[in-house]
Amino acid sequence: MRLVNSSLGFLLSLALLASQGAQARPVTYTSIDVPGAALTVGYGINESGEIVGYYQDAFKTDGKKKIHGFILSGGVFSTIDVAGAAGAEVRGIGPGGDIVGDYWVAGEPATATHGFLLRRNGEFVPVEFPLHPYTYPQRILPNGTILGCYHENDMLGSMFGMWIRGDKAEAILQTSSMHNGATPDLRIIVGSFTDLSEAAPRSMWAYVIQDGVFTRFRLPGSIMTTAWDVTPQGVIVGTYRDASLKTHGFLLENGTYTTIDFPGAPETRAWGMNANGDVVGYYVDQSGLTHGFLRKNSHEPRQPETQDSDRHD
After folding, report:
1. CA–CA separation, 274 and 252 (whole Å)
2. What is the pLDDT of residues 21-41, one digit of tens each?
3. Are the C-beta atoms of 138 and 100 separated by less than 8 Å?
4. Three-class SS of residue 25?
5. 287: how many CB neighbours lie within 10 A of its CB?
6. Domains and their CATH numbers in the chain
7. What is the DSSP pairing of strand 124-127 with strand 114-118?
8. What is this structure's pTM?
């Protein structure tokens, strides 16, 4: 896949935006809290409205509060743990209910993360990028393609965005990168990376790979922008930090961005989006507590994507 850094043109198009949120759509916000948890984070959502993420225990085990994955389906929370693991997170869910995430094992380096796929039928499948020890899955597409990154013990210096499907796998050359979402045909991939050539403190950039062309970008006036998901229609959801160091979510659609702030919250991060335009993430309240959230559009739901799409070379 040919990768070209064409950030200038994309940034110029962003700089010409007349305003953010040109056409406001009616939306509702709902908090997501796993009962009894110290914190809850929403990370992914499918077209059926099933939400995945992770939560932290309110109590300590062996001096630590354990992290668990969860799925919220039909109004019911279910915990997702990996046998023998010290903790687990769930980050993506496909239209059929297959989920992907990561887990870690006590005694391994702090940077060690192992990927997994948990099928709807309960089958557990390890996810590993070939010839690399640690894999970090983020999303699963309708055809089973898994996106994320792989890395070594040093994390950032050896982290590369990648996708895997069966015996096919591909990574990009951009260091410190992570693929976070893609359209079903893989023609558009979005992600985030840290530019290690920048003077400290370094900050993150969002990127888009469209038909093999790599473009990095930041929203106008932001000091950090990350892209976390993209719909089949090409709408990007992510997070940015403004000059006052406040963190917001955003939608980027047809060259116009809309800020996402959970009402009354000093910090909001948007991390997942489905084809219906529903967004999940987390916010921090005035007391410093972390809650997941669902930002739901007022619309008739789309039917889930089920076709077996493949990438366009």
Report:
1. 14
2. 434 568 999 999 999 999 999
3. yes
4. coil
5. 5
6. 7-297 (2.120.10.30)
7. antiparallel
8. 0.86
